[in-house]
UniProtKB/TrEMBL annotation:
Protein name as it appears in the record: Sugar dehydrogenase complex small subunit
InterPro entries registered for this protein in UniProt: FAD-SLDH_ssu
């Protein structure tokens, strides 16, 4: 978690404050995860937080914080996306084997 926090903080110097505000907003309004995006989008007082949950989730899933020139690779093998294929691919990655190796049925 420290590496994620450091990466997001490097990209956005206000990340820590935004994260604290998001946590306080969720706690004070008793918002469950399924309603978070809609509640944030409907409340203009937290407009700067609307994208934050998606950024965090995307980073966790892909193993990359941010995008474009500011992207920071935080996790590769441990990225959440690779857990979906870890039982089949070693290492758990979508870039496995030589080109076309995915075309043949595994033995």
């Amino acid at each position: 978690m420290q590496r994620w926090f450091a990466a997001f903080s490097k990209i956005d110097p206000d990340f820590s404050a935004k994260l604290a505000r998001l946590r306080a907003y969720i706690d004070s309004n008793a918002i469950n995860a399924g309603d978070l995006n809609a509640r944030l989008a409907a409340d203009h007082g937290v407009a700067d937080l609307v994208a934050l949950p998606g950024l965090i989730l995307t980073g966790w899933y892909l193993g990359v914080a941010g995008s474009g020139d500011k992207a920071v690779c935080v996790a590769y093998v441990d990225a959440l996306a690779y857990q979906d294929v870890a039982d089949v691919l070693r290492p758990p990655s979508y870039a496995y084997g030589a080109y076309g190796s995915w075309a043949e049925k595994p033995v």
